[in-house]
Amino acid sequence: MSSAAPALIEFQKVSVARGSRLALDRITLRIGVGEHVAILGPNGCGKSTLIKTIARECYPLVQAGSGLRIMGQESWNVFELRSMLGIVSNDLAGTFHREVTGRDVVLSGFFSSIGIWSHQHVTKTMQEKADHAMARLEASHLAERLTTEMSSGEARRVLLARALAHEPNALLFDEPSTSLDLFAQHELQTIMGKLARSGIGIVLVTHYLADIIPEIDRVVLMERGRIAADGSKPEMLTSERLSQLFGLAVEVKRRNGHYHLW
């Protein structure tokens, strides 16, 4: 990849306030198209704010020398942006409070809603893309199932299909394994690995080391709204670095490309 090519995501000295608190403090970060990157840090370090800033749910403070570009552009229509970056967030799972079928959840990604409403017009192309995304994730059997009848793992799979329906350049995962049991975590990691190997970019935001699939080769460590370190997985995922990051003496073990804390 040429260094002159536009980055998928480029933060330049970006700060974001959440109320009276500075959640991001002059962040500088560049993620290239097709990269597989994990952003790791403890709760409250600013990881989710980073994702929300990319998705235009939070906006940076106006400061001299700062800027946020996606594919080289500073200004984006939000609907166009969502077609390029598929976001898989636990915030959406929390909205499954009414009876909606799996297919309608996937289709609603075209309208930035959850479920289809009477004023929304679903085209044949949308239907085809939704069915293709569900088939790609082996989730076609969930098309007619109500979300209120799904397990947490099934619901997460449907949300991932929702993000994929746009055929985005990259997927952004925000704490993807939260509320999943061991089987569903393993299933999710397998899906993420297949997608990474297919060529789609993966940006994973997590505090859970086991979420980091073998296909991810770069890790960014975040602490108190700042980038603490950024480098290759073997360089970043050491006992010394993670003990300092999480404020607890830990030991890192590696097995079959996966890292675990003890």
Set down the secondary structure blueprint:
Blueprint: E1 9-18, E2 21-31, E3 36-40, H1 47-54, E4 67-70, H2 78-84, E5 85-89, H3 90-93, H4 102-108, H5 124-136, H6 152-164, E6 170-174, H7 182-197, E7 201-206, E8 218-223, E9 226-232, H8 233-236, H9 239-246, E10 252-255, E11 258-261
Explain what this protein looks like in three dimensions:
The chain is globular and about 50 Å long. It is built from nine helices and eleven strands. The protein has one domain: P-loop containing nucleotide triphosphate hydrolases (Rossmann fold, 3-Layer(aba) Sandwich). α4 runs parallel beside α6. 31% of the residues lie in helices and 26% in strands. The protein has 262 residues and is α/β, with parallel strands linked by helices.
Task: Jot down its keywords.
262 residues; alpha/beta; Rossmann fold; 6-stranded mixed sheet
Q: TL;DR of this structure?
A:
By secondary structure, the chain is of the alpha/beta class. The protein contains nine helices and eleven strands. Helices cover 31% and strands 26% of the residues.
Shape estimate = globular
Number of domains: 1
| The CATH topology | Rossmann fold
Following the backbone from N to C, one meets helices and strands in this order, namely EEEHEHEHHHHEHEEEHHEE
The protein's oligomeric status is single chain
Distance between the termini: 37 Å
User: How much is the radius of gyration in Å?
Assistant: 18 Å
Tell me the β content: 25-35%
Largest sheet descriptor = 6 strands, mixed
Round the mean pLDDT to the nearest integer and report it.
90
- Strand neighbour order, sheet with most strands: 5-6-7-3-8-9
Per CATH, the class reads Alpha Beta
- Proportion of residues in helical segments: 25-40%
**Total strand segments:** 11
Task: Give unreliable regions as ranges.
Answer: none
CATH superfamily annotation = P-loop containing nucleotide triphosphate hydrolases
- Classify the secondary structure makeup into a structural class: alpha/beta
